[in-house]
Structures
1.
Amino acid sequence: MSRQDLLAVVKVKKLSDFRTIMDTIGERGSQGCEICKPAIGSVLAGLHNEHVMLPKHHGNQDTNDKFMANIQRNGSFSVVPRMAGGEVKPEQLVAIGQIASDYGLYTKITGGQRIDMFGAKKPDLPDIWARLHQVGLESGQAYGKSLRTVKSCVGSTWCRFGVGDSVGLAIDLENRYRGVRAPHKFKGGVSGCVRECAEAQSKDFGLIATDKGWNMVRILDRYIMFYIRTAEHLQRTAPWVESFDGGLAKLQRILIDDELGICADLEAEMASLVDSYEDEWKKAVQDPLVRSKFRQFVNTPERREAVEIVAERGQNRAADWPKEFPSQKFTLASLPPKSEWKWVPLAAVSDLAPNNENTTSAAVRYGDSQLAIFHVPHKGYYATQQMCPHKRAFVLDHGIIGDKNGELYVSCPLHKRNFKLDNGDCINDGDYSVLAFEVRSEGGKLLVRLPPADELDMVIGTSKWMVRKDTAKEMGGIAATAVGGCGGDGCGNPKLEW
């Protein structure tokens, strides 16, 4: 089923959550997969614009939407406040600088005229956003398949060549479409004259001022809404236009001439999305239940780094990954016999907030080892090690739960290695496997059957697998491409890990 067909069925049948959609038009009782869950999440967001961390939606969110921040390779996150049109006040710049300094964040100006702060720990995200809210900064939705930015030049505000207020219009457009979820991210640009300093023609939508005014403003609502309705999941606007039956000429007849008689509907649907906007992070900061989801471990306030932080050009960043990690299969053979294992209470049932609408998960610490615990509606509780061995990333509790032929698995949020919850086997890459553990619920507590902590630490302890400054050197080079000439098999190699 195409995304367009899925959206149409969901809309006509008035379906509003993953479980109902699967039971109505999918496989009843199925947990879906790492592909269909985000697609369904995208459709629901494009129709209803509900908060992505509601229990019925949270399990559908992939990688970045899961915690409303872009996950980085060391398991930390980036923070990107909205700076509509690239405009920012001095006191807001001061606040950003102070926050970055206080939390040791790496800062960089983005191509969309805003500031990105890298290296934020998950437990710190609510407090960081609370401080940003105090100076009037809101979520930039850099994590979502949604509007990112509307870039602008300074236009007639300052430029001697400007014939239009490009900053003002960019701010109006960005504030209008902020938070609107689409099949993929989309960006805009507004140039104050035909010199085109904002590069509006290279964006998903763009406007250029002339002495006769602005072009295309009145049909943007229709264009974006029709894109949401008809594009495939993860399809950007350019390939959507290129593949559209009838091409650009047909789109012009639909969106300008109203050939299909749907323009009023498109405008009304966009108005509904615009009117339902809320700053997702503001709501998250104010909701204690949502804030509780940002703990690194639910059984201790202690934190654990999984990648060494190094200094570069006066800022902190994560140590390099090696070009390749060796394959790694964790098995029970490396542990004491199960007769020596014990049931260990590691979390409260309430820590996972189990429900019948979607899956939930949390990470716990046991000695120096990290574990991920999952709840699957009508199936029960499962646990695995927290580290995905593909890149030594301690992130499996962030992964989407799916099932294949009735076998449940967790999909690593970084590079989609899928590990079975019952035995840890990787179903799409035989070079890897993880440890899986039994879990039971007893008296409001979750107990995991485990070997002694020191024995488990020798196998999956964080210190043992931490990526350090010297790791890449020891394993033969870093993953990043060095600046220099082409040579060997590197250039034009179609098989890229990234």
Note: The chain has two domains: 3-281, 322-475.
2.
Amino acid sequence: MSSTRFASYGVRGWSASAPPVIPGEEEKPKAAANSFTTEDGKAIVSYWGVSPPKITKEDGTAWKWNCFRPWESYKPDISIDVKKHHKPGTTMDKFAYWTVQVLKYPTYLFFQRRHMCHAMLLETVAAVPGMVGGMLLHFKSLRRFEQSGGWIKALLEEAENERMHLMTFVEIAKPQWYERALVFAVQGVFFNAYFLAYLASPKLAHRIVGYLEEEAVNSYSEFLEDLDNCSFENVPAPAIAIDYWRLPPNSTLRDVVFVIRADEAHHRDLNHYASDIQCQGQELRYTPAPIGYH
């Protein structure tokens, strides 16, 4: 029995020891780790060979934004009609319209003419529907083994565009602690409410967003009026806005608000269009989505 134990111990000891070196055989080199430097100057070392690409502008200068790439920037269509309104006709339309009307008054009473704070809260809410709708259409596509007609991408583009509006405004003004707390509360309630609404009736959900975007257009129109009346300081446009919308280098806050209002008008049309398709008894996947509609 003692010899058996000794043999077993010998096997274990051999398996744990280093393999013998064979003369003439060179040691294989270890995989080289890639390293790169982040925006704050910290070095990141990665064994897996994943490193961010070095991107430059057309003039050869380095691209400094990680949140979007040059090919994702665009020149917005500012010729869009910002006064269009979908007149409520059906019971569903009237319900969606008055829901938005009831929701807008508390925000107007709270913010009044503090346009920058109002815009930041507005964008934290406006970026929710596209993400929720795109997510639910994504899962539906997986469950049913069918294409989405491009609507997943179109809705996620909308959510990303709204988020970039917020990233632009925070470069100009920083929210106070109570505004951040308000965002937590409003976003939590709105996300769950819109999630349930989209599950119950996607056409109603899109109609509600269409009317929300109409109010966003009106809100930015008031912002522009106060900028023109010098009631609000027309500061220089932040660099992120100049690169994202391909604005001239000497652009101002008014130019930024002007293009953001055009974006909101496009989101208004897209959501009313999505609701109209479904109100006519069709599924979104049978109608090509307006991808890149800016």
Note: Confidence is low (pLDDT under 50) at residues 1-19, 27-32.
